[in-house]
Each structure stands twice: as structure tokens, then as C-alpha cells.
Amino acid sequence: MSELQGYFCPFGSLDIRAVCKIGDDLDMSENELFDIINDFRESIGSESWDNIDPVY
After folding, report:
1. Which of 9, 23, 37, 48 is the most exposed place for a label (fewest CB within 10 A)?
2. How far apart are CA 36 and CA 2, in angstroms?
3. Where would I find the H helices in the chain?
4. Rounded to an integer, what distance in angstroms lies between the CA atom of residue 21 and that of residue 42?
5. pLDDT category, 2, cuts 50, 70, 90?
6. DSSP secondary structure string, 16-27?
7. What is the pLDDT of residues 5-44, one digit of tens each?
8. Smallest Cα–Cα separation from 37: which of 18, 20, 53?
9. Pairwise CA distance, residues 49 & 12, whole Å
10. For residue 25, what pLDDT is reported?
């Protein structure tokens, strides 16, 4: 089950919690947070989420 979950969300729960906390502090929605992380992923030319650090 955790392997399958990793395909949908390769980040650990602490990473997700940290991103949510940052978003709350900045009054940002989940969609805005996702867009920022996805834009970064695309800007570095990565087709995969595996090496992306959402907290960074």
C-alpha cells in the first residue's frame, strides 16, 4: 500500500505537513502551493516528482 501511495505522492507526511504550514502562514490555498511546486519541477526540466523537495 505504501508503495502505491508513493506513486501518487512521493513525499513523506512531514514534508506535506511542512508545506501545509507554510501555506497557512502565507494564506495560500493548496492549489497555489501545488502550482508553485509544479512550476519549480517544470523549470528544472524534471518529468518526475521523485527528486523534488516540496519544502525547499
Report:
1. 48
2. 26
3. 2-8, 13-25, 30-43
4. 23
5. low
6. HHHHHHHHHHTT
7. 666 777 878 888 899 999 999 999 989 999 999 999 999 9
8. 53
9. 12
10. 96
